[in-house]
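Lecture notes, unit on protein representations.

Consider one protein chain, 442 amino acids long.
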Amino acid sequence: MRGSGFVAALLAGTGLIALPVDAQRRPARPTVQQQLDAAQAQLKAQQARIDAQDERLAELQRRLDQPQAVAIAGAPLPPAPAVLAAQAGAPGTPGDPAGVLQPPLAPLERVGQAPVAEDRPIELAVLDSAGSIVTRKGQLTGEVQLDYARADRNRAVFRGIELVEAVLVGVFDINESRQDVITSSAALRYGLTNRLELGVRLPVVHRSDSSILAPISGSTTNDSAATIDNSVKGNGIGDLEVTARYQLLDGRGGTPYLIANLQGVIPTGSDPFAIPRDPLGRARRAATGAGFWGIAPSLTAILPSDPVVLFGTLGYTFNLGKNVNTEIPPVLISYVDPGDAISASAGIGISFNQRTTLNLGYAHSWALGTKTRTQLLQANATWGDTRMTTSRDLQIGRLLFGVTYRVTDRSSVNWSVELGATDDATDLRTVLRVPTVLLTGH
């Protein structure tokens, strides 16, 4: 027995036979508490990295909000202190000794141009200054504008008797008029609060009017003597415009920007009823103003829907009448009340990129008739003392086309074209606007 026991021990020592399980050496198993501690350590390490990333994102956002704080555009941004601390302690983090839960964060680089859509108002060239959201608090925007408008009128007037269809006995007159108006103006807009904006615009007008009243050849005995050609020009300050705009809705949650506008027109230009006239009542100089006070409230809605912007405006213009006491033989015009006007416009702005926007739209105004009180300079029993007349309504429709190009973060160029769609509308109007931020807001 002793010999067999010795042999068994010898074989066991050489590994040829296995010793009983109890005789083998077992590794120590971790307790449940140790496993829980390791899991909590891993969670803490992950939470530390999440906190470091949050601080990193906050630092990047602060740098985007204050681009002037970056010394060199395009240089790598240094990691936030919390990120550096997390990276330095990552290899020795309890529960993640190898640092494999998350790789170290590499410094981010600024590539290309950061979006600036949130820092700049929405601009629509075809809606003039009413086409952008309200200027933010403390921001002052200056604007220069060059405007050209052309209107042609050709009308045939028959004075006589129509015997049967297409048989006329009388005189045909051709009334042709042309008007060219070049307006240069300067404007300022200031954000009193984040919702309230005040503005002022002063134009300088260069105007040329020409009209020809001529009978058709052969309708009178002396055609050349009957022809009346009148051409006048005028230069000077136009009517001053003051505006107030209040933003009712801020466009959040899918709602449109809703802006209430109030515009006032002050007759600082030359009055058409006060300019000098010849004995026949014809003006010797073209007027640069309308001569009447006006108040125009309106409501503008702007709905961004990337990559397009839908817009619309609805407004009403009140024109205040006044006594003019102007003699245009054979009558004396004592009182004039320009008709009020209802206006509406709608369109779409298509954004090609962060700098270029194309705008298409249509605008229509319904101008009510002008009331005029006149009396003959010489007494006439059939006329009476005074007579109040109302002209016909005017339908003014315009097709709109505009392009907006953002030159810098502070300046942009807006070019728009209006084409007359009705007989009463101006044939062509083109406007070039250059708004520039002079003072940034808070």
